[in-house]
Write a structure and sequence with these properties.
Strand content: 15-25%
Order of helices and strands: EEEHHEEEEHEEEHHHHE
Mean pLDDT: 88
Strand order of the largest sheet: 1-3-2-11
Structural class: alpha/beta
Oligomer: single chain
CATH architecture of the largest domain: 2-Layer Sandwich
Helix content: 25-40%
Number of domains: 3
CATH topology of the largest domain: Zincin-like
Number of strands: 11
Length: about 240
């Protein structure tokens, strides 16, 4: 290579191999295992030149990702504060009174923080969403056999032939009316496993504003915070 692109170099006690990473806030970063004394950066950059060119070219289109300071859980009308405390140990999350989450640890790896937040939201969604699903099931008389909460990429919810319902943990970021609409939608699939006229008639019986909610659901992705999808692109 004629010249190396702008980069940062960081030594890490956790890294097991030489890595290239890219994040919008840090740009291109070389992560070097703590015990590795010599690094041939020119060879490394040359080996991954196509990948480097690709991420640098896409960089202007990426939204900066900073550590979130709050969690806006619209579905529950809750606002959680997030604080960070740097310590010399593995990063971990603690739930405190007053809607407060504290993340403590080295705080060097965004992926560790992101994983902890997603894990906490998954547990919290399991508790809150399944309670609400059960309440609406009792209210409507639409019974299901089993329900679970997962982190899904493309669906807010689903229901199979065994009347097993799966809900997306990201529903916590949506407004209450949309969450209720989606839960009713999946419960109606326990009667009609399709989108026939009979299915929508059943939905309408329990959601008078279902047409509007249905349209809003198509754009509901913008309620999910940027950090949820932000990934570190890495080669190592």
């Amino acid at each position: 290579m004629d010249s190396l692109p702008p980069y940062q170099l960081r030594r890490s006690k956790r890294a097991r191999s030489l890595q290239l990473q890219f994040t919008p806030e840090k740009g291109l970063e070389v992560v070097v295992p703590y015990r590795l004394k010599q690094v041939n950066l020119e060879q490394l950059f040359l080996q991954h030149q196509d990948w480097i060119n690709k991420v640098l070219h896409c960089a202007p289109q990426r939204e900066p990702c900073t550590k979130p300071e709050t969690l806006e859980l619209l579905a529950l009308n809750e606002r959680w504060q997030i604080s960070y405390q740097a310590r010399a140990h593995t990063v971990r999350l603690r739930e405190l009174p007053g809607y407060h989450l504290r993340i403590m640890g080295t705080l060097e790896e965004w992926s560790d923080i992101q994983r902890l937040l997603k894990r906490w939201i998954l547990r919290y969604a399991h508790e809150k969403l399944l309670t609400q699903l059960n309440e609406i099931s009792t209210e409507t008389g639409l019974n299901y056999e089993h329900a679970r909460v997962r982190i899904q990429k493309r669906r807010w919810g689903s229901c199979n032939t065994r009347k097993e319902i799966s809900l997306n943990a990201q529903l916590l970021f949506l407004s209450p009316n949309l969450v209720r609409h989606i839960l009713i939608h999946e419960l109606c699939h326990t009667r009609h496993l399709n989108h026939s006229g009979a299915f929508w008639q059943l939905v309408a019986e329990h959601d008078n504003d279902y047409k509007r909610n249905r349209l809003l659901c198509r754009k509901a992705e913008h309620f999910v915070p940027v950090w949820w999808h932000q990934q570190i692109l890495a080669i190592g």
